[in-house]
């Protein structure tokens, strides 16, 4: 059975599309260990304070605590019902912070009626405060 020229072109186009999709998704091999290729944005990781010391972290940023190898990332504020300045509110509301602690996804809250601490990988993170726009969180991490 012989393939027609059109069939060969369609197969070649399909292979090209699949290879391009894999490369864009990070599935292609890259020299030197298979990490992200050139042009792939790298997350911002900063060296932070030691354990047991309060520190500020911006939404979208990561920090490695200076006296351990624990990485903490402030991914996002998934919900925020806190009373904004100048508003009259019956309830103080709550904001939920989505964090990554020692490789595990965890949540902490601003309202004391909900968990303000979370544990993962032998560490505990506590939320001290979250600024009103929800951009900068003050956290402290302890070894458990």
Automatic annotation (TrEMBL):
Keywords annotated in UniProt: Signal
Residue ranges of the region described as Disordered: 29-50
Top-rank lineage group of the source organism: Bacteria
Annotated signal peptide: 1-23
Full protein name: Lipoprotein
Species of the source: Actinokineospora cianjurensis
């Amino acid at each position: 059975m012989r393939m027609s020229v059109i069939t060969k072109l369609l197969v070649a186009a399909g292979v090209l599309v699949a290879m391009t999709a894999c490369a864009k998704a990070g599935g292609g091999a890259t020299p030197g260990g298979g990490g992200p290729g050139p042009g792939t944005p790298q997350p911002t990781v900063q060296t932070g304070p030691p354990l047991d010391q309060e520190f500020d972290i911006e939404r979208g940023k990561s920090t490695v605590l200076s006296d351990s190898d624990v990485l903490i990332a402030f991914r996002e504020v998934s919900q925020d019902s806190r009373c904004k300045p100048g508003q009259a509110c019956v309830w103080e509301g709550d904001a939920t912070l989505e964090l990554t602690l020692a490789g595990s996804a965890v949540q902490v809250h601003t309202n004391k009626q909900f968990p303000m601490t979370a544990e993962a990988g032998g560490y505990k993170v506590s939320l001290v405060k979250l600024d009103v726009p929800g951009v900068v969180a003050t956290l402290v991490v302890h070894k458990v």
